[in-house]
């Protein structure tokens, strides 16, 4: 009888530990987490980083000699454009404009690469230099595009829109 009682006590203790553990884990899942951040703010940080990568890739592109080397620029432009489009959706079209020139840069590089691996012409290099110079102006604007309240800074959004139009004019020449 005594053995049975000891086994019951051990079983009850194990059962209480399991139930207590489950309750604690459930509480951890449901309690508000102070460390959580707004998803739109995190998206902005990622896209800002992608824009910086595109900017550095464009600076490197000036020194590239053939179209095959432009793959890195094309990938960076695609990623930055993809992320920015998601930001426009997250913050709203009335708050933020698309950057069609970045998408057009991807298409333009793809067009240059269709003919295969060839030297970059002087006209293409001049376009890359001009695009790179103008795009570099976007980086400081993008750095303060979203404020600490997770809202788009309207002055910076307007400046970004102007720079976007200037990039569009460069590419459409």
Description:
By secondary structure, this protein is mainly α. It has 2 domains: 1-36; 40-172, Four Helix Bundle (Hemerythrin (Met), subunit A). It contains 7 helices and no strands. It has helices at 2-30, 39-61, 71-91, 100-114, 122-136, 138-143, 154-172. The longest helix has 29 residues, at 2-30.
Kindly summarize this structure in a few lines.
The protein contains 7 helices and no strands.
What's the arrangement of secondary structure elements?
Layout: H1 2-30, H2 39-61, H3 71-91, H4 100-114, H5 122-136, H6 138-143, H7 154-172
Provide keyphrases for this structure.
0% strand, mainly alpha, 173 residues
Biggest sheet features: none
This entry's quaternary arrangement is single chain
- Looking at the overall shape, the CATH architecture of the largest domain is Up-down Bundle
Count of helix runs: 7
Distance between the termini: 95 Å
Share of helix, binned: over 70%
Structural class: mainly alpha
Average pLDDT over all residues: 88
